[in-house]
Amino acid sequence: MPTSTFYNLDESKRKQIFDACVEEFAAHTYSEASINQIIKTANIPRGSFYQYFADKEDCYLYLLGEIAKEKMILFRDIVAKDDDDTVFDEYEKMFDQAIVWIEKKPQYYQIGIKMDMDNSEFIRKLLKGNQAGLDYFASLIKRDQDRGIIRKDVDADVLTEMLFSINRTALMNFFYKRDFEGMKKQLHHILEIIRKGSTTEENHV
Q1: Whole-structure pTM value
Q2: Best CA proximity match to 118, nearest among 60, 52, 58
Q3: Domains of the chain: which residue ranges?
Q4: In this structure, which long-range contacts are made by residues 182-189, counting pairs with CB atoms below 8 Å and at least 24 apart in sequence?
Q5: pLDDT per position as a tens digit, 111-146
């Protein structure tokens, strides 16, 4: 975590440093990112950086934490908003909101892409520990199995992995092509195939 010295800085200075971190980690993987470049962009002395952060890991974790706070605010109003929603309904809503997220904060999304490109031990541990999203969707699938919407023989973990894999690919394609309507249409078509293959007969739509 950043030191108290960092939090004692005025808000504009903290934002200046934060923005410099975003710029560097959006342009490079964690392993390739340079503290020297962050210092240069933020226009702070090298000694000041180490008054604010223990090292690059500390700086990166701070950055991810701040991004997560913003993302939580953006997504919190769509989760479990309608009791009749199925996991597929929530998945579609979250995908649509993720598009808004990418358009609003493209550098944040770029940081995520760079994480997937980094095979360092530090990043592998971070990605391995990021189970919250997977666990949430697996719980929704099990809930829908209990409600008789999804077949009991469907493996919740496998279906979750499928949904996240498709989501990752679709969002990345959108990020590079900026074709929202095309991506949404393709995703809904893929999702309809999965829905029909995993839901009970009476819940086919």
Answers
A1: 0.80
A2: 60
A3: 4-63, 77-203
A4: 183/99, 184/95, 184/96, 184/99, 187/92, 187/95, 188/92
A5: 988 998 898 999 988 887 666 778 888 898 999 999
Q: What is the pLDDT of residue 188?
A: 82
Instruction: Give me the long-range contacts of 51-55 (CB less than 8 A, separation at least 24).
Output: 51/3, 51/5, 51/6, 52/2, 52/3, 52/5, 52/6, 52/9, 52/17, 53/2, 53/3, 53/6, 54/3
Q: At 63, is the pLDDT very low, low, confident or very high (cuts 50, 70, 90)?
A: very high
**Which superfamily, per CATH, for 4-63?**
Homeodomain-like (1.10.10.60)
How far, in Å, CA of 42 to CA of 112, rounded? 22
Integer distance in angstroms from the first to the last C-alpha of the chain?
Answer: 48
Report the topology of domain 77-203: Tetracycline Repressor; domain 2 (1.10.357)
